């Protein structure tokens, strides 16, 4: 089902895979710095999409939090969401039932994707690609599967090239976890996840990789601690 292991963890190795949808949705908003702010930005980034039925592909759809925001804007979109966690997809199916998206249980790094997408989006997921090489390879795959003029909306956890900046933002991220975790168990789970399961790459390098891949315009839209939102535009032919 998963093919070659590119993500650094199986779904059953991630603490949230066994969560009920309600608990996951509550926790993810609280423990990821800037989660709400990132999602408030996304509708604005879609203003240039003129089609009533755009083709949208989401990598790591989870329980459908991001998809729900996008589908409110484009309820007739041809929406495909991929996630390697069956449990997460059950939550997504429940949340997105009115929109009837196509949900696929697979490792998005290795499975086939539809081509000519108007939008590809991934929020808090790509940092589980284990190496820089894996991330660069995924960016190239994203570029190939976007239509001319398409956009890649990329929200994720990152680090920084400057060690002082990296240490400062890492400390703020953990402070945010301490302030917002609902219990000691909850704090331990998410702190372990961030310290041992996340494979963060410097945001400066990732912006460069996107540019080298061929994206015409790459912008850092939002930053809070280890959380960023990037948008990359594929040029028109």
From TrEMBL:
UniProt lineage: Archaea, Candidatus Iainarchaeota, Candidatus Iainarchaeia, Candidatus Iainarchaeales, Candidatus Iainarchaeaceae
Highest taxon above the source species: Archaea
Protein's recorded name: Methyltransferase domain-containing protein
PANTHER family in the cross-refs: CARBOXY-S-ADENOSYL-L-METHIONINE SYNTHASE, TRANS-ACONITATE 2-METHYLTRANSFERASE-RELATED
Gene3D superfamilies: Vaccinia Virus protein VP39
Alphabetically ordered keywords of this record: Methyltransferase, Transferase
GO process annotations (BP): methylation
GO MF annotation, one: methyltransferase activity
SUPFAM superfamilies cross-referenced by the UniProt entry: S-adenosyl-L-methionine-dependent methyltransferases (SSF53335)
Domain Methyltransferase intervals: 56-150
CDD domains: AdoMet_MTases (cd02440)
């Amino acid at each position: 089902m998963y093919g070659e292991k590119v993500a650094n963890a199986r779904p059953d190795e991630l603490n949230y895979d066994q969560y009920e949808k309600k608990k996951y949705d509550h926790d993810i908003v609280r423990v990821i710095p800037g989660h709400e702010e990132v999602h408030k930005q996304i509708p604005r980034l879609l203003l240039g999409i003129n089609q009533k039925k755009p083709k949208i592909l989401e990598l790591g759809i989870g329980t459908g939090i991001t998809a729900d925001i996008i589908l409110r804007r484009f309820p007739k979109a041809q929406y495909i969401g991929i996630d390697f966690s069956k449990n997460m997809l059950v939550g997504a199916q429940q949340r997105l039932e009115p929109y009837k998206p196509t949900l696929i249980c697979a490792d998005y790094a290795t499975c086939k994707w539809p081509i000519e997408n108007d939008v590809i989006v991934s929020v808090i997921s790509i940092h589980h690609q284990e190496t820089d090489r894996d991330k660069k390879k995924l960016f190239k795959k994203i570029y190939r599967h976007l239509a001319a003029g398409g956009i890649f909306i990329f929200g994720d956890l990152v680090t920084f090239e400057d060690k002082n900046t990296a240490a400062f933002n890492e400390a703020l991220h953990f402070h945010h976890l301490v302030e917002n975790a609902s219990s000691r168990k909850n704090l331990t789970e998410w702190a372990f996840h961030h310290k041992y399961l996340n494979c963060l790459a410097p945001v400066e390098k990732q912006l460069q990789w996107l540019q080298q891949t061929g994206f015409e315009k790459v912008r850092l839209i939002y930053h809070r601690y280890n959380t960023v939102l990037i948008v990359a535009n594929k040029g028109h032919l």
